[in-house]
């Protein structure tokens, strides 16, 4: 089954404790992207990757890191999480950035 | 304000009625896409319309695009309770080079009452 898988789906953590949200797709997509969704603000792009080893900042990259060492995986790293990073995070992928995006089910992160 | 802005923010209708939601954007686009999100779940792609297209249909969905007004509308005909969800427009900017940016609006929340 074609899918984008995120883990963990739910996480409560404390300020400053590094965490990684994994994202994996099995559709051989070139393009992958991370979004955060906050009430009243819609979806905002954090980082995206056009291909392996190619990543770039979206609109809200501060406090996040990403890597794209393999085509299928695109982890989101929070080196020192802060409460303002409490949000619902979505990973998405596509054959190319102009095409249909396939979304994961989301990761709800709470930073205390 | 954001690139994509939906209107209205919320819409409540009876089953069987049509629902129309609008999206406005600011800059030239490559294409515009509509997505649906059920309560906190991942977004699902509904339809993509290219900048050189004016109208597109998919089942009960009809999307129009007016590049001169920088706006798009999504019409859901004969709505069902299962259509209750949030709907987002997303734009791919043009010229975009290799920017890879897909910008989402804030969404319209649709409630369809049985």
Structure description:
The complex is a heterodimer of chains A (112) and B (114). By secondary structure, chain A is an all-beta fold. Chain A has no helices and eleven strands. In chain A, a hairpin with a 2-residue loop joins strand 5 and strand 6 (54-57). Chain A is globular. The model of chain A has no long low-confidence stretch (mean pLDDT 95). With 114 residues, chain B is mainly β. Chain B has strands at residues 5-7, 10-14, 19-24, 29-37, 43-50, 55-58, 61-66, 71-76, 85-93, 102-104, 108-113. In chain B, the strands form two sheets. In chain B, strands 2, 4, 5, 9, 10 and 11 form a six-stranded mixed sheet that branches. Chain B has a five-stranded antiparallel sheet with strand order 1-3-8-7-6, with no helix packed on it. Chain B is globular and about 40 Å long. Chain B starts with a strand and ends with a strand. The mean pLDDT of chain B is 90. The chains are: A mainly beta (112), B mainly beta (114). At the A-B interface, strand 4, strand 5, strand 9 and strand 10 of A face strand 4, strand 5, strand 9 and strand 10 of B.
Keywords:
heterodimer; A: 112 residues; mainly beta; 11 strands; B: 114 residues; 6-stranded mixed sheet; 5-stranded antiparallel sheet
Topology summary:
The complex is a heterodimer of chains A (112) and B (114).
Chain A: E1 4-7, E2 10-13, E3 19-25, E4 31-38, E5 42-51, E6 54-57, E7 65-66, E8 76-78, E9 87-94, E10 102-103, E11 107-111
Parallel strand pairs in A: 2-11
Antiparallel strand pairs in A: 1-3, 3-8, 4-5, 4-9, 5-6, 7-8, 9-10, 9-11
Chain B: E1 5-7, E2 10-14, E3 19-24, E4 29-37, E5 43-50, E6 55-58, E7 61-66, E8 71-76, E9 85-93, E10 102-104, E11 108-113
Parallel strand pairs in B: 2-11
Antiparallel strand pairs in B: 1-3, 3-8, 4-5, 4-9, 6-7, 7-8, 9-10, 9-11
């Amino acid at each position: 089954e074609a899918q984008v898988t995120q883990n963990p789906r739910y996480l409560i953590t404390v300020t400053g404790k590094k965490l990684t949200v994994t994202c994996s797709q099995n559709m051989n997509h070139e393009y992958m992207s991370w979004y955060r969704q906050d009430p009243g603000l819609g979806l905002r792009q954090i980082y995206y990757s056009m291909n392996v080893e190619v990543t770039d900042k979206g609109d809200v990259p501060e406090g996040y890191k990403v890597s794209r060492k393999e085509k299928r995986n695109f982890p989101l790293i929070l080196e020192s999480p802060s409460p303002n990073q409490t949000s619902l995070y979505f990973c998405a992928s596509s054959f190319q950035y102009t095409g249909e995006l396939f979304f994961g089910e989301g990761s709800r992160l709470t930073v205390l | 304000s954001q690139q994509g802005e939906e209107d209205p923010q919320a819409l409540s209708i009876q089953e069987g009625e049509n629902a129309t939601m609008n999206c406005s954007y600011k800059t030239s686009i490559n294409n515009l896409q509509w997505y649906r999100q059920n309560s906190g779940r991942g977004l699902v792609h509904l339809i993509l319309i290219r900048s050189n297209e004016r109208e597109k249909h998919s089942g009960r969905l009809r999307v129009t695009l007016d590049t001169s007004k920088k706006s798009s509308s999504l019409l859901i005909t004969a709505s069902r309770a299962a259509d209750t969800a949030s709907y987002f427009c997303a734009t791919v900017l043009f010229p975009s080079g290799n920017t890879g940016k897909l910008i989402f609006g804030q969404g319209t929340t649709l409630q369809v009452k049985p």
